[in-house]
Amino acid sequence: MAWRTTIGDGHSHMRRVTIVGKATYCKNASTIGYSSRNARPGDFVVWQTNDNPRCYGRVAGRIEQSPNDGLEDVTGWVVVLALGDRMSQLYFRFVNPDDIIECFKLNKNLLVFFSSIEMNDETIPMLFREEVRGGLIDSYVDKTMERFSVRCPKHGAWKFDGTYTLCPVCAGKVEVTAMKYPELQHKDE
Ligand SMILES: [Zn+2]
Which of 11, 49, 126, 145 could form a disulfide with 178 if both were Cys (CB 3.0 to 4.6 A apart)? Predict the structure, then answer.
């Protein structure tokens, strides 16, 4: 059974709706590459309206039935947790499935990598090399990350596995930085 939940206060903040954890068919979504026309909970979607040329977010679920409040009928619309265009805010939006132009599974490691990589004279040449060889796209980033490391200034480095955590020894801040390529790692052996 798909889950079902209710959100919204029905007043100033958001209309009160019941959403279900089911896929929604988006007839205008691209089918190129990994894009799909079925927007499932957790999927990343891109949509556009007259006011906003490109909006981004993740599917929460589908509105089971529009509230009987005299406003626009949103039955069957998608509730999205939207990402603000400054990447500084998340907020719920009701999205007409006809406005969704892309829908796909997000490789969250790409975003973790993007938001945590340090910019310095070690990482920038590595990033450029990876970009040229196609390593900075979602389908290869898991492999690319193995070429980078997490480093505590006091306690050394370990392989970056997509999580960006505190140092296990001192619980201090760590940085994601470059690791030498495998062919260069063992030159002393
Ligand atoms: Zn440490």
Answer: 126
**Residue span of the structural domain in which 162 resides:** 108-185
Q: How far is the CA of 89 from the centre of ligand 1 (A)?
A: 31
Instruction: Give the count of domains, the chain.
Output: 2
pTM of the model: 0.82
Q: Quick one: 85 and 170 in the same domain?
A: no
CA-angle at 123, arms to 122 and 125, nearest 5°: 80
Could you tell me if 134 and 76 lie in one domain?
A: no
How far does residue 169's CA lie from ligand 1's centre (Å)?
5
Contact present, 149 and 166 (Cβ < 8 Å):
no
Residues 64-95 pLDDT 10s:
999 888 899 999 999 999 999 888 999 999 99
Instruction: Using the mean position of ligand 1's atoms as its centre, give its distance from the Cα of residue 88 in Å.
Output: 29
Q: Each residue of 168-185: pLDDT tens digit?
A: 899 998 888 887 554 444
